[in-house]
Amino acid sequence: MPNIQLNTHPNIHFSTKIKTSMMELAISAISGELLSRFMSFLIKKHTSLASLEEKLERLQQLILRVHTVVEESEGRYITNSQMLVKLGMLVDAMYQGYYVLDTFKYNPYEEMTTQEQVSNSYALSCLARLNKRIRAASCATGINSSVNHDLEAVMRNLESIVANITEFVILLGGCNQMPKRPYDSYLYIDTFMFSRPVEKQKIINFLLKDNSSNGAPVVLPVIGAYHVGKKSLVGYACNDSLVRSHFYSVLHFNSDSFQKVDHETFLSVRTLVIVEFISDVDDSEWLNFYSAISRMGTGSKVIIISRLEEIARFGTVKPIQLRRLSHAEFMYLFKVLAFGGTDPENHPQMASIGMEIAKMLQGLLLSGNVLADILRKNQNVQFWLHILKRFRNSVEHNLFLFGEHPKQLVERNRPTDITMFVSPSAAPLHLIPPRGDSSFHNKELSKVTFGDLLQGSSTIVPKGEFQILAWQSRIPPFTKFLATCIEEKYCCSFPENKKRRWSCVK
């Protein structure tokens, strides 16, 4: 049988070589183009970062100048109403500046899952890696451009304020100094009335103003939402040395005790009366009380505290409306409370985690105080991350059960679910908002505190219904915030519509 030899046509080899060469040239061209784009981006990025650093340095200098003036203002008696308006502008601009500065300093904390970590360990092709980096960097630039707008706006505002601050500083120098510096703003922030400098000055001015010609006591309503620090503000203002020496005595009443007073209760001396209303009262009851306090000496004053707008009708002067802390104020407060005397710049990862916790709190002042106290005592990244996860799980659980954040539930005086702080498999545990002073005195206070539940340090949680100490204020009148926890077994049914409402059957 003859040998058959297959000859490959030389044109086929030549065509294959051409295709291979063209492929190599194409890959080389694409790689070169991507590399060129990436290098151009890096140069542009480096230039923009240098410019950003200069802006942040300038922002920090502006904040420092404004903060210096604000701190000096809080050590003076300011009686001029227009100066108080200006002080309010300084305070708002200062905290907004701190918020924007921290936003740039501390990137949002991102946890990497095990799957992502393994995935990132695989070698990707050179072109894919390069293209991915360019897309990611471009995305980051877009985010920075969005935040950069806030930076520019805050800087313009601070520049304008600093340029016109000279007159305020000169007038401030003519105001009398307080006998004692109110605080060291960094180390002892939890022992003074944070923010509220304008409201504090207004209360002090009201108390020291001479109204002897009016005869009857002047009444100032202090109205504010749930747990915004109304009693703490009034207590802090009344603790001023001039105020203490101005009045012969200070009397405290609540919704129950004010109805039991008679004309013999009050002496004919200059007296300060503070009344807290947790519910509305009849006009006739107030008139009887006001008639009794009219026996007090000339220059006596009355402050009524309530979260009910209706109570303001009993005032004889314009009420002080105590708003909630702004987002920027709350973020700054939480940061300083959580770090105490530690510099956050030395712990950027903890600072980032702290910002995430503060954002999740959405301005819950009482919970913020408790969490910050826990974090300050345990300044460890893993512990802070542990607290973040626990609080996040609790928030998500409340959103699942009730369709609302705990903040909304608290504001509407509804119970919040804190089961996730104990154990996901535990019987449902609800935190019931306070139902008035009298409801607590008949119950024994549990050794478990709200802080113990938050950090999971309590291994044994009481059964059934029990009362806990939620928080105790660090400043006069050292108010104790008590709450009731109820463990109950129930099933919750939800309607099929998107907006969840809860109905529970024990």
Automatic annotation (TrEMBL):
It comes from the Eukaryota. Keywords: Coiled coil, Leucine-rich repeat, Nucleotide-binding, Plant defense, Repeat. GO terms for molecular function: nucleotide binding. Residues 34-107 form the Disease resistance N-terminal domain. It holds the Pfam family Rx_N. Belongs to the disease resistance NB-LRR family. PANTHER family: OS10G0134700 PROTEIN-RELATED (PTHR33377), RX N-TERMINAL DOMAIN-CONTAINING PROTEIN (PTHR33377:SF79). This is Disease resistance N-terminal domain-containing protein. It comes from Urochloa decumbens. The lineage of its organism: Eukaryota, Viridiplantae, Streptophyta, Embryophyta, Tracheophyta.
